[in-house]
């Protein structure tokens, strides 16, 4: 592990898990692009979950170079390298390792395929401070993610290189629907109090590969810190499309991203061909496990609603 002295002067740690077979993979290009976009105020934790030695060495050099140029005062970089080469990749395991290694009081889980203009990350940092997450774990939230089409990804990157925002997602009436596969407000980009996360055990590492591990964590958080009345058929998976009715757990979790979207803090998911690594996608097995978890209902705290589910369906709602 490339590690420096613990330092809590950063407001939030961005945790980026990955596994790559080779240095020249697209994921590595996107990692560099992402890290070099992040503004001051973030601690950056890269978690390598089982890449070959050549990739590990390259990442070590890269992180040391970033840290040297930053001086460690305005941004902090750390590489967590897991000895999991011959184990199935696990987003849950990687995210937990990143949270344990972080020094900042707030953690943010960020996939390598997510991206935004620097101005969005600056607004996000301000939103984190406004929510007082360092002291109030009940204010956890999700950062909305707009999944782009292949053509929209090309357009986004053209504007990104000019340091501009391709679209504004604050106004529901002006979403670039022709450019979206779908918009996920209750995304895996969960922002929460680090100590609170560790106190509840982090992500459930029984979820292997990619799929549903984020929903299981959101389920536990939502039972502790409910935001509204749960929808009908809460345990039902209504699919990954844009929410059109208040039904199922995805609609409920979307409420946790509403304020963040209205604050202008939506990321995009850059299009890529479906990954073919063994065991990466385990949606069938993981969603079956999720259903079992949700069926065994956790105690739900009684708290007054803080948001109306109607905001998800009200086309006039905008920030």
Provide a descriptive summary of the structure in words:
- By secondary structure, this protein is α/β, with parallel strands linked by helices.
- It has one domain (12-312): Spore Coat Polysaccharide Biosynthesis Protein SpsA, Chain A (Alpha-Beta Complex), CATH 3.90.550.
- It is 33% helix and 14% strand.
- It has ten helices and ten strands.
Percent range for β-strand residues: 5-15%
What is the average of the pLDDT values? Answer: 90
* SSE-based structural type: alpha/beta
CATH architecture: Alpha-Beta Complex
How much helix, percentage-wise, in residues? Answer: 25-40%
Count of alpha and pi helical runs: 10
**Secondary-structure element string:** EHEHEHEEHEEHEEHHHHEH
Low-confidence stretches: 1-7
Protein name: Glycosyltransferase
Enzyme class: transferase
Pfam family, one: Glyco_tranf_2_2
InterPro entries: Glycosyltransf_2, GlycosylTrfase-like_prok, Nucleotide-diphossugar_trans
